[in-house]
Specification:
Elements (H helix, E strand, L loop, with lengths): L3 E12 L2 E13 L4 E5 L6 H8 L7 E8 L2 E2 L5 H7 L4 E4 L3 H4 L6 H12 L5 H14 L5 H4 L9 H12 L6 E5 L7 H18 L2 E6 L2 H7 L2 E6 L2 E7 H6 L4 H8 L38 H5 L5 E3 L2 E6 L17 H6 L1
Length: 337
C-alpha cells in the first residue's frame, strides 16, 4: 500500500530574470516503513520538492499531484494541512538552531506541538511525553535538559531535539531535509541511528534529502537522483550503487572519498546550469563526458532500462557502459554549465 505518491510535480517561481523552474516533473512512490533518499547537488530541487509537498512554498506556481492517504496535499486547504503537518507528517529541517525558537525552552516547544494536535493532552502529560522523547533520541539527563534553551544544546543535541519534536505524535511520514549537513561524522552517525531506531519502532516512512551518498548508502531503500530540478535516475539503493546508468550518478559516486583516504577525488567538471536559462537538450550535457549530438538537441525522458523495470534513467546512452564513448567536455560547455 502506497503512503505517498507524487506524480509529475512542477514548481516554478517568477523572478526579475525570468521564470525559475525549480522542480520539473518529479514522480515517486513511498510505502509505509520504507526510506526514500533524494540526492543531488545544491540547487537541484530537492528541498523545494518536499517544502512544496508540505505546503511551504508560498508564491510558487505548482502543478502535479501529491497523494498522501488519498489526500492531494497540493490542493488541500490550510486547515487540512495544519492537521496533517506535525501529526501525520513530521519534518526535520537542515538548521535546528533557526528552526527552534531561541526564547522558549526545548521542552516547552515539544509540549506546545503535542497539545496543538491533541487538545485532550494536559500540560503535565505533554511534559512527561517531552522527557520520554528526549530520552528516546539519546539526550542525557533528559529530566533536567528538558528545561534548557536551544543555545544550551550542542548542534547534535539540537538536531536530536528536532527529531524528538517531529516524532512526538508518531507520524506516518518523516521528512528530513539534510539533517546531518552541519554535524561531524560521529554525531551524524548517531543521528542516523536514532532515525533508524525510531523507524523500526514505529514503522515510519522517511524521505531523506541529502547531497551525501554515504548517508543514502546507510539508510535508503529507494534513491532518486535529481539535477537541475529534474530526476536523472531512480532505482533501489543497491542497484543504483552497483549498476548505475546515468553519467551524473556516476559523477556523484566518483567524487566520494575513497576507502582509507587514498587517491584524489574526481569532481564533476563545470557548474550546474541556471534554472532560469536551462540548456537545450539534456540539462547535464555541458558537463557530461559521454554527450553526443542528440544529447544537445533532445531532452531524454525518464524511462525504465531494458530488463530492469524498477530502474529508470533520463539518458540517451546505451544501457551498458562498454558501448559508451568518452567525449571531451569543451571549455565553452563547462562555462555554460
Amino acid at each position: 500500500m502506497t503512503l505517498l505518491a507524487v506524480r509529475d510535480l512542477h514548481v516554478s517561481f517568477n523572478t526579475p530574470d525570468g521564470t525559475l523552474h525549480a522542480v520539473r516533473g518529479l514522480s515517486f512512490s513511498l510505502d509505509p516503513g520504507k526510506t526514500l533518499g533524494i540526492v543531488g547537488e545544491s540547487g537541484s530541487g530537492k528541498s523545494v520538492s518536499v517544502l512544496t509537498i508540505m505546503g511551504l512554498t508560498r508564491g510558487a506556481r505548482i502543478r502535479g499531484k501529491a497523494l498522501f492517504d488519498d489526500v492531494d496535499l497540493l490542493l488541500a486547504s490550510d486547515e487540512t494541512m495544519r492537521q496533517i503537518r506535525g501529526k501525520r507528517i513530521g519534518m526535520i529541517f537542515q538548521d535546528p538552531l533557526s528552526s527552534l525558537h531561541p526564547y522558549y525552552k526545548i521542552g516547552w516547544q515539544i509540549e506546545e506541538m503535542i497539545r496543538a494536535h491533541d487538545p485532550e493532552a494536559s500540560k503535565a502529560s505533554a511534559h512527561r511525553r517531552a522527557i520520554d522523547l528526549l530520552k528516546l533520541v539519546g539526550i542525557p539527563h533528559a529530566e533536567r535538559r528538558v528545561d534548557d534553551y536551544p543555545h544550551q544544546f550542542s548542534g547534535g543535541m539540537r538536531q536530536r531535539a528536532m527529531i524528538a519534536m517531529a516524532m512526538a505524535l508518531n507520524p506516518a511520514l518523516l521528512i528530513a531535509d539534510e539533517p546531518t549537513t552541519a554535524l561531524d561524522v560521529t554525531v551524524q552517525a548517531q543521528v542516523l541511528r536514532v532515525m533508524a531506531d525510531l523507524q523500526r519502532e514505529f514503522g515510519t516512512a522517511i524521505i531523506m534529502i541529502t547531497h551525501d551518498l554515504g548517508v543514502v548508502a546507510d539508510i535508503a531503500d529507494q534513491v532518486v537522483v535529481m539535477y537541475a530540478g529534474a530526476v536523472m535516475e531512480t532505482a533501489e539503493r543497491r542497484e543504483l550503487f552497483y549498476r548505475n546508468h546515468h553519467p551524473y550518478t556516476q559523477g556523484l559516486l566518483a567524487s566520494l572519498p575513497k576507502a582509507g583516504g587514498r587517491g584524489r577525488l574526481t569532481p564533476i567538471q563545470g557548474q550546474p546550469p541556471s534554472l532560469v536559462r536551462l540548456p537545450r537538450g539534456c540539462p547535464f550535457h555541458p558537463r557530461c563526458p559521454h554527450a553526443f549530438d542528440r544529447c544537445r538537441e533532445e531532452t531524454p525522458p525518464l524511462r525504465p532500462l531494458p530488463a530492469r523495470p524498477d530502474h529508470s534513467s533520463a539518458c540517451w546512452l546505451p544501457a551498458t557502459s562498454d558501448e559508451r564513448v568518452d567525449e571531451p567536455v569543451s571549455h565553452v560547455e563547462r562555462e555554460a554549465g
